[in-house]
Specification:
The structure is a single chain. It is built from 9 helices and 26 strands. The chain is mainly beta and 448 residues long. It has a domain of 209 residues. The strands form 6 sheets. A 7-stranded antiparallel sheet has the order 13-14-15-16-17-18-19. Strands 1-26-25-24 form a 4-stranded antiparallel sheet, with no helix packed on it. A 4-stranded antiparallel sheet has the order 5-6-7-8, with no helix packed on it.
């Protein structure tokens, strides 16, 4: 294969720059601007109340224009900043004592609207926003925002939290589906009485008439169960599509979801048994988990993971895809123009290298675009008790100080590649030059 030399551009200025997750378009519609966040410190998770600059970079010069500050952010997913048109964007921020959102004009630099509701993703027509309860996600160890208490901290599956839908014109906000309703859907795979539940990673299908999301909760043995769910944007036909170890995903088309993982089986069902939460049984869990992993999983080959195609039907239909080609978890995003084409990445290998790649479904061909190395800097852990404020102690007991501070810091810099709206350019975050930055390049010659 010919070596590819990407002509990369990046943001110019002081501090660090990043966008966030792989499920949003960072470029303006005319491709002249790219949204980004500008923290000065990345070697620890955000502190309560800590604010960072946000704005955009000129895609020709790389110069950064600061518009404002927000404390509603995390390093993996940013502040969910999204373009409404070429001149306006929406971004999460704290509004009073709530997580909300604000709209800014890039010409004047002024805030022009605000909402008492945070947003996660927007409909294509920019009329509807879908949001989550970030204070709950933070409390349960997910990618939430620090600084606001979870008002439902005593409720394992509240009826007043869940997936929200917001009309950006009327500002009407309502629950599309509650955590309680999700936890009670397909109760045999949910185990709703075991632990606290949360919803994360909502993504709209291409036609914007259904939205998929991950439902997560902790098992009695300390593991986590993930269920891939979907629901119509009118609140109709809530479905559980897959259960097991499930990770990053995108919609291939209106009926099919492309996701990394493995679906659960008998071993997974055994782990959800409430007997494992018994204090007399818990000391034996380490031995039990090793037994299940080394004996039962090996026999049934259930540890084998791959990308999966999951049909959004009442009766689940799941098959493996790109076996032996896409061999590990990554962050896929389908081209908005050609949904046979994805941009994807990998986690760091033993040399600390992440791979950026294209994959063509039609030809079943993977094409590696570049290798980007992580840096060896260790996270700053002296602020551990501040950066973990609001997180349940039983969650913190599962992870070391160092690992928590690293995975929630800007040092843990996944590429999270993402397309522009017309499928000709990509942008990604990286730390390979010694600082965190946002990079972009045109790849039209590679896909024509």
């Amino acid at each position: 294969m010919d070596k590819i030399n990407l002509q990369l551009k990046s943001v110019l200025g002081k501090g660090h720059y990043f966008f966030g997750f792989h499920d949003l378009i960072a470029f303006s519609h005319d491709n002249e601007k790219i949204l980004c966040l500008n923290p000065m410190v990345i070697n620890r998770p955000p502190l309560p109340g800590e604010k960072i600059d946000f704005g955009f970079a000129n895609t020709f010069s790389g110069n950064f224009i600061s518009i404002g500050k927000t404390n509603a952010f995390n390093f993996p997913q940013g502040a969910r900043q999204q373009w409404l048109d070429n001149e306006h964007f929406i971004i999460n921020n704290q509004i009073g004592d709530k997580w909300g959102a604000q709209i800014y004009d890039t010409i004047s630099g002024n805030q022009v609207e605000s909402y008492q509701s945070s947003i996660h993703c927007l409909s294509k027509n920019k009329k509807l926003a879908f949001g989550l309860d970030y204070q709950r996600i933070h409390r349960l160890g997910g990618y939430g925002y620090i600084g606001i208490n979870d008002e439902c901290y005593n409720d394992p599956s509240p009826s007043t939290q869940g997936l929200w839908i917001l009309d950006l014109h009327s500002k009407e906000r309502k629950l599309l589906v509650s955590i309680k309703e999700v936890a009670e859907c397909d109760i045999f795979s949910s185990s709703k009485d075991v632990s606290h539940h949360f919803i994360t990673h909502p993504v709209l299908n291409p036609s914007n008439n259904r939205i998929a999301f991950l439902h997560r909760f902790f098992l009695p043995d300390g593991g986590i169960r993930t269920r891939l769910m979907s629901i119509g944007i009118e609140g109709n036909n809530l479905r559980c599509l897959a259960v097991g170890f499930l990770s990053h995903f995108d919609w291939k088309d209106d009926q099919t979801i492309f996701i990394w993982g493995r679906t659960g089986g008998n071993v997974d069902n055994i782990r959800s048994n409430p007997i494992f939460s018994n204090p007399l049984v818990k000391p034996l869990l380490g031995v039990a988990k090793n037994f299940l992993k080394n004996i039962l999983y090996k026999v049934s080959n259930q540890l084998s993971m791959s990308f999966l195609l999951v049909r959004d039907n009442d009766i689940p239909n799941i098959k493996e895809i790109a076996k032996g080609i896409l061999t590990e978890d990554g962050h896929p995003m389908f081209s908005p123009i050609n949904r046979d084409l994805i941009i994807n990445d990998t986690y760091p290998n033993s040399n600390g290298e992440r791979i950026l790649m294209l994959f063509d479904f039609y030809s079943n061909v993977r094409r590696d675009l570049g290798v980007f190395k992580m840096i060896n800097e260790k996270p700053y852990i002296a602020d551990y008790y501040q950066v973990t404020k609001g997180v349940d102690q039983n969650i913190l007991n599962m992870i070391s100080y160092e690992l928590y501070c690293f995975t929630r810091s800007g040092l843990h810099c996944d590429l999270h590649p993402r397309w522009n709206a017309n499928g000709t350019s990509i942008a990604f975050d990286s730390i390979h030059e010694g600082k965190r930055n946002l990079y972009w390049t045109n790849i039209e010659n590679l896909i024509s």
